[in-house]
Design goal:
Distance between the termini: 49 Å
Strand content: under 5%
Structural class: mainly alpha
Largest sheet: none
Number of strands: 0
Oligomer: single chain
Helix content: over 70%
Length: 118
């Protein structure tokens, strides 16, 4: 327990705006990469189901995901906490909007596909 206390005291004493900016940028980039992978895999599964049910392929959702992926490295160039929060909100908001929309729109086809396969 002493080690944890020491770490927290050190962080409290040394957590400056610069440290906040660096850690927040790194965290935002890593989370965004994880979200991109998650949404991409989910879109691939939805696309697979759509192809098997003879529906059109997903296009604009991939484009939106690509747009959020292009915005992710821009986090490096933000200079204020407000800029980081706003840009991260746009990036994550886009990614999760794609995910939520896909779940809502593709739920029936995916459930039918899964139940037929099992």
């Amino acid at each position: 327990m002493k080690l944890i206390e020491t770490i927290f005291v050190w962080v409290a004493a040394n957590f400056t705006t610069e440290v906040y900016m660096i850690s927040t940028k790194i965290q935002g980039i890593l989370w965004s990469i994880a979200d991109i992978v998650l949404v991409f895999v989910f879109l691939k599964i939805a696309d697979l189901v759509r192809v098997r049910t003879q529906k059109k392929k997903i296009r604009w959702r991939y484009f939106s995901l690509w747009f959020s992926a292009v915005l992710t490295p821009v986090l490096i160039f933000t200079q204020t906490p407000k800029q980081v929060i706003l840009l991260e909100s746009v990036i994550c908001g886009t990614q999760f909007s794609i995910l939520i929309y896909t779940v809502i729109v593709e739920r029936k086809g995916m459930m039918d596909f899964i139940t037929k396969k099992l």
